[in-house]
Design a protein that fits this description.
Shape: globular
Length: 554
């Protein structure tokens, strides 16, 4: 097997994780995922200021603390921290190694950055064979730009076992392993619905390891003595994160999530088997970021009586001062009747303004809000100071034929090796949705929070949100599968009622997954939603009080 660890799930993750993973036990490869849709926007703005930037600078500082250790222990480092400028980060790592007197061989993968005059950034999501080529050429460090997150694990597995494009099941198995570790501690108990059941209460989960075998099967684990836990449920939670239907599309393989089987394999060990793959699509996903304009926000505190009337007064005053275009008002009824302190008695009125005119969205708006302090509703106060507008981005997804993207592996010696796309592909066939509604558990019910019986994990995919819900027992799934329909979801989460919602069933995981189209508008960078990435959507659902079947144990 090949032991592949992860030390970063996003740009800003635990700085010391690289050191912890290298010191914690045996590894063959250590990966780091830094890229998300919002990150590409941040890196794009960085590169506007300085063309030499465009990569995750944090990784360079982390490498300074651990590159020597990795080389001494024969652990190879693979990261997508190259962002929009993998060549720049590779050169910076080589310079760092020179200053430290270390003989590091650095390779990188390029070709994902697309020349689009109408975009701030445009990146194709590349596959794993470029990473494998760099490792085959002896690279100690491999830097990429926008490869798929799972490719950071699939690439080293290809290099170890010599898989080819037609080894679909093996590639699919490694893709699942890559998806499971890509978000770091989120598979070892981080953000876990039942965190109170973890041995350390979820205090400081360790980072994960995937032991990938020649047939593509894997064991998920972590270093001994680290926090959190690796269980079938923590793995299920991450497997449901930011996915759509059972067909998980990738540039090298389509992975069938409805074939994944999870089994306990000892303490903090979960075996992942049975994964099947089908031919990849003829196109690559392309992520496009543009500047959408400027935004600003102010929040009013409405205390005591007449909350709705107070909010209406503010709305009328703000609209009269700056006009109605681009304004958005959200009243959060956080107030409680007969409260004994101000905070418990108060609601919050969030006022957002988006505009292409920076001046209107800036001080003209925030000053108009502040000017109401002595001329509006009784008890008028704000939680925000007047400030200038900030730019926001808009994310869209596109596709491009695989053979129109020139992926290149730049080997440690400087040789440039073209990476051919898959020879065989197959058109994308949308998964069938499932309606549910045939509940198999009937009888006595009791009132309780839905989360007593189910876990959930939610997240963002551009302007859409995904919400995966899993049951803790076979009986629980028999009830959940029939009971949690799209219609019932709309009752429990009214903000989804007017949107297109796709529902998929994953019986092998005792789970249903919902894709809620347009919940996040133009994406996280543009969203004014209180939870702009839908990270808390699953916990909101679990908190709803419903009729639970009394025969299903907690």
């Amino acid at each position: 097997m090949i032991r592949i660890g992860n030390a970063s799930g996003f740009y800003g993750d635990r700085f010391t994780a690289w050191r912890e993973m290298l010191d914690g036990g045996e590894l063959d490869v250590l990966t780091g995922d830094y890229l998300a849709e919002l990150t590409m926007l941040i890196l794009g703005r960085d590169r506007l200021r300085d063309p030499d930037l465009g990569y995750a600078k944090t990784f360079l500082r982390q490498a300074e603390t651990c590159l020597g250790t990795a080389l001494d222990r024969g652990v190879r480092l693979v990261t997508n921290a190259g962002g929009l400028n993998p060549a720049g980060l590779a050169a910076a790592i080589e310079a760092l190694a020179g200053r430290l007197g270390l003989p590091a061989k650095v390779g990188y993968v390029e070709g994902d950055v697309l020349p689009r005059a109408d975009a701030l950034t445009a990146n194709a999501y590349l596959g794993a064979f470029g990473i494998a080529a760099c490792l085959d050429a002896g690279a100690d460090v491999v830097v990429t730009g926008r490869v798929t997150d799972a490719s950071l694990v699939v690439g080293p597995a290809i290099a170890r076992y010599g898989w080819r494009h037609d080894d679909l099941d093996e590639l699919a198995g490694a893709t699942v392993a890559g998806h499971l570790v890509e978000c770091g501690a989120q598979v070892t108990g981080g953000n876990f619905s039942f965190f109170t059941e973890l041995p350390d209460g979820g205090h400081r989960p360790g980072f994960p390891i995937a032991e990938v075998h020649p047939d593509g099967s894997a064991v998920l684990t972590k270093h001994p003595g680290t926090g959190g836990a690796v269980t079938v449920e923590t793995v299920t939670a991450q497997l449901l994160y930011e996915v759509g239907g059972p067909a998980y599309l990738g540039p090298d393989v389509v992975t069938r999530l409805d074939t994944v089987t999870l089994h306990p394999d000892g303490p903090d060990r979960v075996r992942v088997t049975g994964v099947r793959g089908t031919l990849p699509p003829p196109t690559l996903k392309v992520g496009v970021n543009n500047l959408g304009g400027f935004r600003n926000s102010m929040t009013f505190v409405l205390c005591g009586l007449d909350i709705e009337a107070k909010a209406a007064l503010v709305r009328g005053q703000i609209e009269e001062a700056v006009g109605t275009d681009g304004l958005e008002f959200t009243l959060a009824r956080t107030d409680h009747p007969d409260a004994v302190d101000t905070e418990a008695a108060s609601a919050l009125l969030h006022v957002h303004l988006r505009d292409s005119d920076r001046t209107r969205a800036g001080r003209a708006f925030s000053a108009a809000a502040v000017e109401l302090a002595l001329a509006s509703y009784p008890g008028c106060t704000l939680t925000t100071l007047p400030g200038d507008a900030t730019p926001y981005g808009v994310f869209t997804a596109d596709t491009l034929p695989q053979d129109e993207v020139a992926q290149v592996a730049v080997l440690p010696g400087g040789e440039r090796v073209p990476i051919a796309p898959p020879v065989r592909t197959a058109p994308i066939r949308p998964d069938e949705t499932a309606s549910g509604g045939d509940a198999a558990v009937t009888g006595t019910t009791r009132r309780g929070a839905l989360g007593e019986l189910v876990g959930a994990r939610s997240g963002d995919k551009g302007g859409d949100a995904n919400l995966g819900v899993w049951a803790r027992s076979d009986a629980g799934y028999a009830w959940l599968r029939g009971w949690l329909t799209v219609e019932r979801l709309a009752e429990l989460l009214p903000e989804t009622a007017a949107l297109t919602v796709r529902r998929y069933e994953l019986p092998n995981l005792r789970a249903v997954n919902f894709v809620i189209e347009g919940l996040l508008g133009a994406g996280v960078a543009a969203s004014t939603r209180f939870d702009p990435q839908a990270k808390a959507l699953g916990e909101l659902l679990r908190a709803r009080i419903v009729d639970l079947p009394a025969v299903v144990a907690r």
